[in-house]
Amino acid sequence: MKKTKIHVVPCVVIFNKERKVLLMKRASNKRNGGKWEIPGGSLRYGESPRSGAIRELKEETGFKLSPLELIPVDTFGFIYPEMRVEFIIPLYTTVIEGKDPVIRPDEHDDWGWFSLDQVREMELTDRTMKGVYTMVAAAKKLLEGMGFGSAK
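User: That's the sequence. What structure does it adopt?
Assistant: Structure tokens below.
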């Protein structure tokens, strides 16, 4: 019997001032190529989830954040039976204004800013990685509870 794995993948849900979320389209040559996802990646040995999230964010988007700019949301788990892998996702969120990502073509083919309704539709039609909508919705709810999007 083939072994199963647990893979820790810190991710960051990034919103802009219009309350839209950044999604990135996986490069077509990667596993699950063409699916949309939030920025994140594998935790390295000895690295904290927050440090891993900051490193991956810089590698995948060019955004440079300090640890205090990441707000912890929750930890999620998603099982991919066909891969025999469970992904544990320490999830963070932040708001970035006036910047667009600079993507690496070996990682992603495209990116965009999407509303929560658009993300839901994308997941329902199997165009996102598993759980993207759930994680984005949780991050948005947390930020709204902190006053994100409120009138100033």
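The beta strands are 5-8, 11-15, 21-26, 36-37, 71-80, 85-95, 108-114.
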